[in-house]
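Section 5: illustrative case.
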């Protein structure tokens, strides 16, 4: 298959942790990976590790909470590749662990923006592209906390629950055009950022709380994303795929 015939997958937050694993897995599935991330250097490292040939991948630096940055990025992708087949929204993070009485409004807004607003902006930018193509798949990212809630994670839990509700409505809007929108909800995953919050004993204790007795590897979350991006899930839309080792069973 020539480069011109290959499908294009855009991954926001694709420069590290789960994002890097998703980029790698989609590249294995013969997608051209496009990374959108605030850390351009890290994104370029991810592409370099994949051995991407020139013209076979791209990293665009942006602030995913700014509409102008997001629109510029998708304009660039459309100009260079003429299509977007898959959008994976992974940009996000809990950022702060505080009781609600201690939250500054700025901190609340920051968490909502980096999770929910960034997802909205990327979906809004890709909507007309996929609508015109009459095909495409969008995968947004939630969390166990979207279902369970968590003390000290009120803003993050609200943002992730919002992503699930947003995606259901988005799926209804896009279905007439042959475009699917689903959610992946990872459980606790062994990324450097997450593991950095624990010492060895704390990590072992946290892992023991999961029915399957261990945390997820980033590659396992990436397999779920690849499923939602591929033809195996062509009749799925508006759904949430939980990949959490049984930690949450909604």
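Designed sequence:
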């Amino acid at each position: 298959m020539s480069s011109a015939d290959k499908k294009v997958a855009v991954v926001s937050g694709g420069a590290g942790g789960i994002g890097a694993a998703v980029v790698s897995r989609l590249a294995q599935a013969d997608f051209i990976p496009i990374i959108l991330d605030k850390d351009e250097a890290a994104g370029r490292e991810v592409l370099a590790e994949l051995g991407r040939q020139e013209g076979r991948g791209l990293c665009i630096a942006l602030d995913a909470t700014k509409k102008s940055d997001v629109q510029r990025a998708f304009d660039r992708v459309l100009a260079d590749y003429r299509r977007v087949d898959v959008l994976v929204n992974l940009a996000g993070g809990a950022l702060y662990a505080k009781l609600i009485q201690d939250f500054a409004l700025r901190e609340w807004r920051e968490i909502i923006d980096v999770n929910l607003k960034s997802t909205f902006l990327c979906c809004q930018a890709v909507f007309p592209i996929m609508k015109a193509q009459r095909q495409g798949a969008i995968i947004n990212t939630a969390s166990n906390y979207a279902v369970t809630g968590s003390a000290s994670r009120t803003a993050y839990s609200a943002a992730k629950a919002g992503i699930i509700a947003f995606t259901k409505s988005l799926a209804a809007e896009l279905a007439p055009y042959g475009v699917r929108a689903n959610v992946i909800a990872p459980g606790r995953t062994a990324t450097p950022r997450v593991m950095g919050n624990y010492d060895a004993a704390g990590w072992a204790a946290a892992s023991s709380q999961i029915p399957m007795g261990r945390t997820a590897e980033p590659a396992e979350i990436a397999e779920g994303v690849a499923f939602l991006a591929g033809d195996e899930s062509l009749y799925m839309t508006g759904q949430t795929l939980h990949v959490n080792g049984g930690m949450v069973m909604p």
